[in-house]
Write a structure and sequence with these properties.
Blueprint: E1 6-8, H1 16-30, E2 35-40, H2 43-54, E3 62-64, H3 73-76, E4 94-102, H4 106-117, E5 123-132, E6 143-149, E7 154-160, E8 166-172
Parallel strand pairs: 1-6, 2-3, 2-4, 4-5, 5-6
Antiparallel strand pairs: 7-8
C-alpha cells in the first residue's frame, strides 16, 4: 500500500477532487472480485456511491450509520443522517468501508459494531480520503489518499457542491 506523503498544515489546501482520483486508484488496488463497498454516512456514503459508478460495479454500495453505537450517543442522540443499508449478505463478505476523514477512530469503531449486528464478514478493510492527526483509538486506514496534521481546534469535513463535486471545509470548533 502506498499513500501520498503527509501534508502538514499552515494554511490547509486540499483538492478533494484530486484526492478522490487517488482514492479511486487505491480502491482498485484493494478490491477483489467479490469486494463490497460500504460508505459511512454521509461523506463515506457519497464516496462509495461514486466509486461504485466509476468502477462500473453491479448493484448499490452499502451505507453504515454510526448513530446507534456511538460512545457519545447520550449527548448527540439520533441523527437525521442516512440509516444503515446493506444490500447484500454480510456473512462471509469481503467489505471495504469508505470514509471521508479518519480522525479519532470513534466513528469507525461505531460502524464496525453496527456492521457486526448484521453478520460476520470474512474481511473488513478501511479506505479514506484523508487521515488526520488526533487518533484516540488504535484504528488505521488500509489506504489514505492524504495524511494531514490539524490542531484539535479545527474540523475537516467533506462537502458536495450542487454539481456533485467534492470539496473540503476546514472550520474552527
Amino acid at each position: 500500500m502506498t499513500t501520498p506523503p503527509s501534508v502538514s498544515t499552515g494554511h490547509l489546501v486540499l483538492d478533494a477532487q484530486a484526492l478522490y482520483g487517488e482514492l479511486l486508484q487505491g480502491v482498485r488496488g484493494l478490491r477483489g472480485p467479490d469486494t463490497r463497498l460500504v460508505g459511512i454516512a454521509s461523506g463515506g456514503a457519497w464516496l462509495a456511491q461514486h466509486l461504485q459508478q466509476d468502477l462500473a460495479l453491479d448493484g448499490a454500495a452499502g451505507v453504515l450509520s454510526s448513530a446507534m453505537h456511538r460512545d457519545d450517543f447520550a449527548q448527540r442522540g439520533l441523527s437525521a443522517r442516512a440509516q444503515t443499508s446493506l444490500p447484500f449478505d454480510v456473512n462471509g463478505a469481503d467489505i471495504l468501508i469508505l470514509d471521508d476523514v479518519l480522525y479519532t477512530g470513534r466513528t469507525v469503531r461505531a460502524v464496525l459494531n453496527e456492521l457486526y449486528d448484521y453478520g460476520r464478514p470474512a474481511r473488513v478493510r478501511l479506505a479514506v480520503l484523508v487521515e488526520r492527526s488526533g487518533r484516540e483509538l488504535p484504528i488505521q486506514a488500509d489506504f489514505a489518499a492524504a495524511r494531514v496534521v490539524l490542531p484539535s481546534t479545527q474540523s475537516l469535513t467533506l462537502a458536495r457542491t450542487d454539481s456533485g463535486s467534492f470539496q473540503f471545509q476546514v472550520k474552527e470548533v
